[in-house]
Amino acid sequence: MVKGSQSFVFESQPVIISSATVGGPLEAEGPLSGDIDILHEDPYIGQDSFEKAEKLMLEEAAMKALEKAGVNRDEVGVFISGDLINQIISSSFAARTIGIPYLGIYGACSSSMEGLIIAASLVDGQKVRYVLTGASSHNNSAERQYRYPNEYGAQKPPTSQWTVTGAGVCLLASEGQGPKVTAATIGRIVDMGITDPFNMGAAMAPAAVDTIETHFKDLGRGPDYYDLIVTGDLGAVGHKIALDKFKEKGININENIFKDCGMMIYDREKQPQVFAGASGCASSAVTIYGHLLNEMRKGNIKRLLAVATGALHSPLSYQQKESIPGIAHAVAIEM
Fold first, then answer.
1. Separation CA 213–CA 331 (nearest Å)
2. Among 53, 65, 144, 190, which lies 20 to 30 A Cα-Cα from 136?
3. What CATH number is given to the structural domain containing 49?
C-alpha cells in the first residue's frame, strides 16, 4: 500500500526468519563480535585475493542463514545482493556458487536496505515464498578501488572511515517467527557538492535526514514511534551533521535512539585506525542483520527504523571531478 510520496506499507508483513553475518579480523576485535556468526583472522580467508575473500564471506553468510532456518536452496525464489566492487562481482560470483535465481543490485553502502525493500516487495506481492538478501564489503578491496591500496600506507584524514570486512544476509518469508518488515521509504538522491572521497559521512548525511524526514511525513509518525533509528555508515562526522540538520528542521530526535552502525561496530578509542568509524555495505548488513536483529529477538528492541546510507560515486566520476551523490533507504522492522 502506497503511503505519501516515497513510502509504502507491507500489508502481509514479511518475516525475517533467519539472518547470518561474517566478519574479518578488525570486526572480531570490535564490540559487536559476539553477534557475528563467523569470524576470520585472515583478511584473505585462505584465498589468493581480497575480492575472492569477499565473495567467500557472502557465500558463508548466505549458507549460514539457510542453515539456521532449515530451508533448502531449492525453496528460495530469489537471491538479492550488492557490494562495492566493479560490476558487483562479489555478489554475482557468490550467486554462481549459491545457485539461487539472482538479482544483483548496486546502491553502494545502501545496498543492504535496498535489497531488503525489494525482497519484502516480492514476498508481500506473493511472487515468492522465500527471498535471501544481503550485502558485503572488504576493506582491502574497497580501498584499492576507491582510494589507495592499503599497501601504499597513504596518510588518511580524521574524516575518513574504515570499510567493514564482512557480509550480512537475511532470509525473508511469507510466514514464520521473527522480526517483521512493515514499511519502507525509498530515498532520493541528495547531492550537497561534497567531492572529498575521504569524507563520506558529510556526503551521505543530508540524504539520511531527507529520507527519515520523508518517512515520518509519509507514514504520519514521529521519532518516538521507534525504539531505535539507525543509519548505515555516517560515522562520527556524518552523525553529527545529521543531528544538526534535524535540529534545523525542527525534528526532535533523541540522541539515545538515533545511532549509526558505523559508530557501533568498532570501538574508536581502542581501534583508532578506523578514524571516524565504519563504512561499506557490510557496516549496515553486519550490524543490522547481526546485532540489532538479535536484540529484537531478545525483546530489547520492538520497533527499528534501519536507514542504510550510500555514496554513489565511482573512481571514474571522481576523476571527472563530479561531486558525490548521497542516497538513503529506510526500512521499518517490528517485533
1. 13
2. 190
3. 3.40.47.40
Q: Are 29 and 72 part of one and the same domain?
A: yes
Residues 104, 159 within the same domain? yes
pLDDT tens column, 214-244: 999 999 999 999 999 999 999 999 999 999 9
In the block, which residue shows the cell 502481509?
12
Q: How many CA atoms lie within 13 A of 92 on its CB side?
A: 9
* Residue 161 to residues 121, 143, 154, 197, 239, Cα–Cα distance (Å): 32, 10, 14, 10, 13
User: In 3-state terms, the chain is what percent helix, strand and coil (to 5)?
Assistant: 40, 25, 35
pTM, to two decimals: 0.97
Q: Say if residue 190 is in the same domain as residue 313.
A: yes
Contacts of 220 (CB under 8 A, 6+ apart): none
Per-residue confidence at 147, pLDDT binned at 50, 70, 90? confident
Structural domain boundaries enclosing 285: 180-334
